[in-house]
Amino acid sequence: MSELERVRGELRRLGYLSHGVERFLLQDALRPRRPLRALAMLAVKVGVLAGGGLATAAAIGLTAINGNLAVTPFDLLPLFLHLVVPAVALCSVLFLILGGLLTLVLRVYPVRHIETLSFAVALVVGLVSVVAVLLAARRSALASEVTGWQLALLGAATLVVASGLIKIVHHGLLSLAIRLTDHAPRQRIFSRRGVGAVIVLGLVLLMLPVVMASRAGPPPEPPALPIAPGERVLLIGIDGVVPSEIDYLLGPGREELAALSGLLAEGGVLLSYERQGEPPATLWTTIATGLDSAVHGVSALDSFRPAGVTMPLSRLGISRPYWQSVAVPLGLAEYRPLLSYRRRAFAFWELAARGGTPVLAVNWWSTFPAIDLPGEVVAHGAYQLLKEEAQGAVAPASRVEEIAALAAGARAASLELVERLPVEARQPLLERALHADAFYRSVFQQGLARKPRAAALYLPGLDLAADGWSWGDVAFTDLLRTELVATDQLISRAAGEFGTIAVVFDPGRREPSGEGRVLLWRRQGCPPVSVGAAATLDLRSLASGLLRAAGLPQSAELLEPPAACHWGEPPTRVESYGRPRPRRQPVELGAEYLEGLHALGYL
Known about the structure:
Layout: H1 2-13, H2 20-26, H3 35-65, H4 76-108, H5 114-139, H6 142-145, H7 148-181, H8 195-213, E1 233-239, H9 243-249, H10 258-265, E2 269-274, H11 280-289, H12 293-296, E3 302-306, H13 320-327, E4 333-337, H14 348-352, E5 359-362, E6 375-378, H15 382-387, E7 394-395, H16 400-404, H17 406-417, H18 423-448, E8 454-459, H19 461-466, H20 473-494, E9 500-506, E10 515-522, H21 540-549, E11 554-555, E12 573-574, H22 587-600
Parallel strand pairs: 1-8, 1-9, 5-6, 5-8, 11-12
Antiparallel strand pairs: 2-10, 3-4, 6-7, 9-10
Helix pairs in contact: 2-7, 3-4, 3-7, 4-7, 5-7, 7-8, 11-21, 17-18, 18-20
């Protein structure tokens, strides 16, 4: 006991027992407990302190990278409550491991400078945590998704939590070292200077979401959208084509893609765009809406909505296993596959249908369940969904039987397309990719007979076929050429009826951070593209061009149409097209759609 009194006096002299957090941790060093019990008690205390800070930072980070911090800042509190228990458990377990290693070191090699050793270990822990945050931010393309004030908030929160983590781990290990060696530290390393500044900064972090909650929401939806006569517009998206392939097939002297080459010869332009490795759901929804994922709300193939949280979380980083394997089975979170009702922006065909004219959308991302519009909407994954007799695959529902009947003909057509493929490659590809694409082309061609004002078709077959392809480059080149020729023939039959045509060739998962190509043609003509800024394209501007060509107003939320072509003046300019109204959807449809995504190979 006299030794403990001496240590207590030395700690008091150095000021360790006059501060709440330090006293909370170091008091275990002054009690005659067994080392294992002392380690367990310290692990719980460190877990509570460090886990609380980690849960706070994680709540802010998850809300920010999902674009919800400015929209629903009060989600922070329930999200913190969801995260604090696993964060405390994780920090406790990690400290147990660190404490066990420190115990082993002190038993094998007694160290006199215990304060230096504990601080060095704590500093490494803090640096590793900061590096992990930076790597996670880089992988999630944080800089392109989060606004400046949110980045500043996240940076400040990271530094505050990292410095707090260093201090907590340092004092926890120091307490354990004192208990094991019965020696007090010779000097104080971690000063209390700056504690007031940290408290003020913490208050600022807590108050910023409240201040941002008072910000005005998106501009209100105009009571009516004036629509000029305009022209019919066509958008086709083809996934899984790298730039070198389409450049070669559309090069001088090539004749395989006669319709596309003809569009280029008649004033079309071939533009390039950069992609950042975003998921297909995000990229193609951005193309259809003209808005970033933070606005249209589609940033992943699925999301999780914790209980009590308003907006679902799509970007989850390293926390995904917890939500998927723990929170959902326990009923603490709802799994939410990507549904059309959760897209927070209108697709261009939905706006084109405002005047009552028919539109056509086939297999585009974020269109399941299909929403009733003038015309026809065939939901993403409809080929698989119709096989399972799932509701919501087609709108209007009266067209389900007629469209489902096209599947048999599509299977026969796709069988003819793959005759030159290796026999062992045919069966794995047919049902997963090629039958589906042939079906969507058939449905699209039939839908064009209704003269839609705006039409959109998405074909993912090549991207799906390339995933896991093991039959050689020559065989895949034959497949790519055959599929593109089939789509070219579809465009040939439709081209004369449209005034603006855009065909997007995206590399998909073959080159997720590479370039893509867009063939843009207007009946009014596009000037030849010279080397320079006009040869590139911001994909968000594509929807603006299609809407302008269809005679709709220009929204202030959207970019101007692509500069590579001439566009007439819009009938008027509006602040916003508004946002789709929230709608409820039965849970069982989400489960069916998830099965469809599994069949497509995206999950």
